[in-house]
Amino acid sequence: MKSIEWINGKVRIIDQTRLPENLVFLEIDDYIELCDAIKRLRVRGAPAIGIAGAFGVVLGIKKMNEEKFKINDYVSEVIKNIRSIRPTAKNLFWALDRMYNKLSAFSGESMEKVKEEILKEALDIYREDEEISRKISENGSEMIKDECSILTHCNTGFLVTAGIGTALGIVYKAVEKGKKVKVYADETRPLLQGARLTAWELKSKGIDVTLICDSSAAFLMKKGLIDCIIVGADRIASNGDTANKIGTYNLSVLADKHNIPFYIAAPHSTFDFSIETGDEIPIEERKPEEVSMGFGKRIAPEDIDIFNPAFDITPNNLITAFITEEGIYYPPYGNWKNLKKS
Ligand code: MRU
């Protein structure tokens, strides 16, 4: 099952806000509608946001009917609008920069050719992501021991990549290789990506999964129930500091306390070599209602102050290793020599 695809001139996505109750596919052929879908997390997770952004440019450009292409105010606005939707995941900016460079290279060409080339670029991003997630999963699965119990946070499987996923891809691959793997999935408050999406994904693939409240993690670690923690990432600074779903930092501190390896699985498109440390990563803040109306009804007083950061930063010294498509990186971080620098 593909969570995002280009079919007959439209972007087809699984509406992730409808899971786990309903598996609903949306077909989108308007870039504003796609921006809205990204904003509302109908399509979410760093690699999928990048892919959606690239397809968004294709849909935006589709509307142009000039004879010769040039980057005019309309094109700049399309890219600016898509860029502004979610600030933390580097993959979105990485994909949009790639689309922009392609557009620049075709300035002065016929509109028809540019539309063709720009779709080709978005499809390349898509296919590369599929292959990259396969490699991350392969590399990571080698590190997983038989009879392994893994704790994960948020959602990092086939719902967020063109392929089988990053952190969850490793689980799928290890199981495929005959290893016995058990997953504990954090529910991931406030939007419950773990409960709604990870639990659904893993169950649909027949993986042994147990859902826990975020606040149970320390207890499980203390009891010796967790062998390692694997999560994804939204942006990784040059020194290895990593932004991921809020609550990831908590897990890394707990892992350190309990001597449990803590791994980040991510593609090169999540690395931001233009910044040195995690302090420079912009953190998305989302609506207070996501906290106060979490379960469809009010669960906090009307007038309560709410702070709702969607991501946190795990410092590099709490990360045991990075699992990428180009191999595994151990500390000291900073020399990402095999990783594509784009
Ligand atoms: O706000 P979301 O649901 O888009 O956040 C997603 C995450 O934090 C994922 O862990 C991250 O993007 C990695 S996906 C491979």
Properties at a glance:
37% helix; four-stranded mixed beta sheet; binds 5-S-methyl-1-O-phosphono-5-thio-D-ribulose; single chain; seven-stranded mixed beta sheet; alpha/beta; Rossmann fold; 10 helices; 342 residues; Four Helix Bundle (Hemerythrin (Met), subunit A); 2 domains; 14 strands
Blueprint (SSEs and pairs):
Layout: E1 4-7, E2 10-14, E3 25-28, H1 31-39, H2 46-62, H3 73-83, H4 90-105, H5 111-141, E4 148-152, H6 167-176, E5 181-186, H7 193-204, E6 208-212, H8 217-222, E7 228-231, E8 235-237, E9 242-245, H9 248-257, E10 262-265, E11 271-272, H10 289-292, E12 311-314, E13 321-324, E14 327-329
Parallel strand pairs: 4-5, 4-7, 5-6, 7-10, 8-11, 10-13
Antiparallel strand pairs: 1-2, 2-3, 8-9, 9-12, 13-14
Helix pairs in contact: 1-2, 2-3, 2-4, 2-5, 4-5, 5-6
What would you note in describing this structure?
The chain is an alpha/beta fold and 342 residues long. The protein contains ten helices and 14 strands. It has two domains: 4-134, Up-down Bundle (Four Helix Bundle (Hemerythrin (Met), subunit A)), CATH 1.20.120; 140-329, 3-Layer(aba) Sandwich (Rossmann fold). The two termini are 29 Å apart. The chain has helices spanning 31-39, 46-62, 73-83, 90-105, 111-141, 167-176, 193-204, 217-222, 248-257, 289-292; strands spanning 4-7, 10-14, 25-28, 148-152, 181-186, 208-212, 228-231, 235-237, 242-245, 262-265, 271-272, 311-314, 321-324, 327-329. The longest helix is centred in the middle third of the chain and has 31 residues, at 111-141. 5-S-methyl-1-O-phosphono-5-thio-D-ribulose is lined by residues 41, 44-47, 89, 154, 156, 160, 166, 193, 232-234, 244-245, 310. The site of 5-S-methyl-1-O-phosphono-5-thio-D-ribulose (MRU) has 17 residues, from α2 and β9.
